[in-house]
User: Fold this.
Amino acid sequence: MKVAKVSGTVVSTISFPFFDSKRLLICDLINARGEVDGYTIAVDVVDAGVGETVLVLDEGNSSRQIFGVDTGPIRATVVGIVDDADFGDFSLQGP
Amino acid sequence: MKVAKVSGTVVSTISFPFFDSKRLLICDLINARGEVDGYTIAVDVVDAGVGETVLVLDEGNSSRQIFGVDTGPIRATVVGIVDDADFGDFSLQGP
Amino acid sequence: MKVAKVSGTVVSTISFPFFDSKRLLICDLINARGEVDGYTIAVDVVDAGVGETVLVLDEGNSSRQIFGVDTGPIRATVVGIVDDADFGDFSLQGP
Amino acid sequence: MKVAKVSGTVVSTISFPFFDSKRLLICDLINARGEVDGYTIAVDVVDAGVGETVLVLDEGNSSRQIFGVDTGPIRATVVGIVDDADFGDFSLQGP
Amino acid sequence: MKVAKVSGTVVSTISFPFFDSKRLLICDLINARGEVDGYTIAVDVVDAGVGETVLVLDEGNSSRQIFGVDTGPIRATVVGIVDDADFGDFSLQGP
Assistant:
């Protein structure tokens, strides 16, 4: 998993029922120095908002488990809102 | 998933029935600053054209689900055309 | 697997029973020159503390095996505390 | 998938029947600017020669499908010889 | 697969029977210019020694096949000792 900050959203026409009424979040990945370092687009499961610090789990089988499906086309999921992430040299607090 | 811009196509003789009449798109991956950062070749499922902004899902099991096969040799798929991708600092609009 | 140093912990509200009473460790990955190079957040299974040198196994199926579950949403696990890691040019010793 | 140029071969004693009489190709990965950017060693399935431009599929389940095995120890396969790869700014032609 | 040079070993207390009496090798990955570029820790299956040039297969399902287990917590394996790796611009020879 990675700590990320939600920077925005994607609206896209994806014609697979799995994506119906699911939000796609652009998650800026935070590196060990607290900087943004890449991003991934993850499906939201915790109702995270733009600007929030979240945990992203980037594995298809894990993500399918979370949505309770055997076969959905999904790889990355926002699984949690971070209350506190202590990296040693710095830390990030949630709301 | 990643946001990408279709930059071109690949024509290749692949002797597996799965690839018959499927288009292979060269997808330039867009990073969190809006720059091109690497590419992947993905199978098209949304009839995307060169220059279009798309969503690329890069996981084999997900891609096989999308094509409804248990065992196709495929990893990355263009799953959607982006209507709007809001990265916070910039945004990309679709057609 | 990678050698890593535990730099901190993450507290996050994840509403999946799998994560109940599991510790999430921020693991700074050590590269072949002994420098920190990226991190991953892994579930602890060996009661590792901050500052300890550990082995991180970053594969979902492996991690699910370790926890004895078929379907948990997990990718990376701290599987061992390093007693001695000899990289040739340098080495790291455990406690 | 990635576009690659076959730069050489590997001869190695691998004592698994799967690898008997299979050729291992060193494939220089071509990035979106036409430069070599990393490599992977892939099993040949199209009789590609050194210097040829090929498509590399880097996923174990896909590769196992291609060889018609459920359990072979294989991750990357050269699945096609590129006739034409149009990256927008440049293109690569096959033989 | 990647060509690597064994630079050292890791001794770690891992309390999973799978790892009993298995050697963990630190494998410096060799890039297309012959330089060391990252490393991975792989389980030895060919009795490779420090300084030897080897082939590393980095996929869990493949590695489990090699050890003949359905469920072992393993991702990367040293599958062969390289006799000759011809990268075009340079080559590496085995013992």
